[in-house]
Amino acid sequence: MIQNLRIANHQGGMATALSGHVPLRTTPTQSRGRATQLLSIGTLVLGAVQAAFAQAPKAGAPAQPAPKVFVVSVRQDTVSEPRSFVGTIKPLRKSIVGSAAPGRVEEYLVNDGDFVTKGQPIAHLRRGIIGAEKKAAEAELRLRKAELAELADSWGDKVKHAQAKLASAQAMLAFRESKRERGKTLGPSATREELEENIALASQTQALVEEAITAVRLLTRGPNQQLEPGHKNEAEMTAAATWTYALGEAKIAVQAAEVERLTEQFDRHTMFAPFDGYVTAELTEVGQWVMQGDPVAEIVELSQVDVEVGVLEDYVARLDLSIVGDVEVPALRGQRFEGRIAVINPQADARARTFPIKVRVQNTIDAMKGPLLKAGMFARVTLGVGEPLSVPLIPKDAVVLGGKIPLVYVVDTDKGGKMTVRPVPVTLGASRGLWISVGNGEIKEGEQIVVEGNERLRPMQEVRIEKREIAYSK
To answer: What confidence tens digit (pLDDT) does each residue in 45-69 have?
Structure first.
């Protein structure tokens, strides 16, 4: 290449000389610039030649095998003619959370669009006074319990002391009675004075025994209570049987009820989320005074959504809760979802003569973007409520979405056994489990359609097939 350029330059110089013009004398700087230009042109030409050789297929290289795909045969069955109805996506549940108590909003903890879980606080009212009352009641309850525990311990010690005193008196009484009887047996050897002293001491000891028995009875049986053996251990039975202990238990029960009342009143100053969902409206603000029952926030549940459509009275008699329909949302580039009829309202709209039907759809929740199906979106629902028709059915996995219209790839086999795929646009109809009906004349019963590996196929591309079975139920 460089040699050709040099020849051309030489010929150009000769032509100049023949024409009578003398070429200008070049400086060393100009000569270096021309050499640089010639080197750059040579580099570009060499790169183009190398790229051409790199793109050309190598002689004798083995051909790549055709991709393998899984196919299923098209079915023909009788299904109800599909009808499309337009509707609006609505949340599964919506709650306007209100205030259970009057007060001034001290904290507002959520914003529009926030996801909240069941039981999560939404807002706090001012609760300083009620909080102090609650703490005082809880402290009083702890005091009552401590007093009762101290009473039980001290009363048990008193009972043990009385029982020990009774045992001592009974032992002394036995000794005195024994000595009195011994004095009687001695006869004349015992003086009358000793005998009378023994009798008097025995009577005195008998009185001490009766006094000890009375003390034990008073400690173990109050005026309005009876002992319940086997209910608690001995110390606890002794205390629980007394009227004083029963009074202490009653005081504890009253104080516990007071703590429960104040806790309920304290909790009313906080608004909680009734279920998992999204905040769609802030209905108050910090510093605002709210009355009991005033709205604070609106929360909707979008884990599932209902598409509410109006069905004409001509078709409503053919609906039941087992029917599955296709839901298309144009805002999501025609993305389709499967929904089942959840509600058939028996009250028609008097002006439109349509019955409200709710088709329930499982939503897709993204951690960053939130729910895919949002409340208020426009949707189109296709339900099989028309006249029965014999139509082709294909697996839902065979449908390729993402373009302007849905399509499937049909496998054609030529006389030489070569298998290629052909894209066929289809019109989707009513669903039946994992299958969906398509328009008559678009594909035929028995044709092989691709259900796996159809994402990157090209028209007329050669493939290898393997048959697959997909469950079908009428």
So the answer is: 444 434 344 344 455 556 678 899 9
Six-digit token pair at 18? 């023949």
Q: Is 252 exposed, middle or buried (0-12, 13-18, 19+ CB in 10 A)?
A: middle
State the average pLDDT for the chain. 80
Domains annotated on the chain, with CATH: 2-54 (no CATH), 69-89+301-467 (2.40.30.170), 94-124+269-298 (2.40.50.100), 130-265 (no CATH)
Q: What integer is the mean pLDDT of 398-415?
A: 89
Cα–Cα distance between 439 and 430 in angstroms, integer?
10
Instruction: Print the SS3 string covering 56-125.
Output: CCCCCCCCCCCCEEEEEECEEEEEEEEEEEEEEEEEEEEEEEECCCCEEEEEECCCCCCEECCCCEEEEE
Count of alpha carbons within 13 angstroms of residue 473, beta-carbon side:
3
| 437, 398 Cβ separation under 8 angstroms | no
Q: Report if pTM > 0.85.
A: no
